[in-house]
């Protein structure tokens, strides 16, 4: 179950395989009652429903249930659209890989901080007189480029190949900030004044652990939208943008206090 929670795609595959086996058994019983076309469509409907139920039983998030439900119909559609060459599927796969190869593992998709958030971060840096900023999972690097300059040094780390290539090229062209092709978990955050993350609920406990281990006293971890479960933020900034963005600010205490906060959350 831990494997499935870490890699939901494995759960989705298990659901389809289990559903396929059950459908096979059901079809043996129905073979004398239905013609070939009836059997085919019964199989598609049963496969979708059973896969969705198994996905739910495996405890995967709700969007995986919809994926389980829609996958058999999508396969039928893909295989029956007459005359479609195979290469668009290959190209689609490569493009998805280049943009989202890390999403299956890290469960952090690509979406970008908006202008209100970037401005709030800039004002936070100015208020604190902060000089060093890092964006963990920097996406297209917009935040990094906006915060670099005026004596501040902003960097980002990003692992999705195409996203990194685009962001590092933009940074070089505009001579603002630096984007490293590096994993969040390997990034050195010990010298940063502000560490920013806009990730997902999944990595927040581990991220906080890394922050308490590595960040210097008085520095700030800022998480866009996702709070660290069981840890009281030092401040919450609610922005007045349309989505009412919340920035959770966690001020780092010295190593001893930080250890306490991690062991006795809240
Ligand atoms: C939600 S986006 C945020 C982008 C950017 N920080 C912003 O606020 O506009 C998260 C980014 O983290 C990247 N990412 C996910 N896991 C990562 C990892 N382990 N190491 C580095 N980057 C990662 C994704 O590719 C994605 O670009």
What overall form do the CA principal axes indicate? elongated
Largest sheet: 7 strands, mixed
CATH superfamily of the largest domain: Vaccinia Virus protein VP39
Q: Which architecture of the largest domain per CATH? A: 3-Layer(aba) Sandwich
Largest sheet: spatial strand order = 3-2-1-4-5-7-6
Name the ligand types.
S-adenosylmethionine
Number of strands: 7
Cα gyration radius (Å): 23 Å
How do the SSEs run, as a string of H and E? Answer: HHHHHHHEHEHEEHEEEH
CATH topology of the largest domain: Rossmann fold
N-C termini distance: 28 Å
Number of domains: 2
CATH class of the largest domain: Alpha Beta
Identify low-pLDDT runs. 255-266
> Could you report the average pLDDT, rounded to the nearest whole number?
89
Oligomer: single chain
Percentage of residues in DSSP E strands: 5-15%
Structural class: alpha/beta
Q: How many separate helices? A: 11
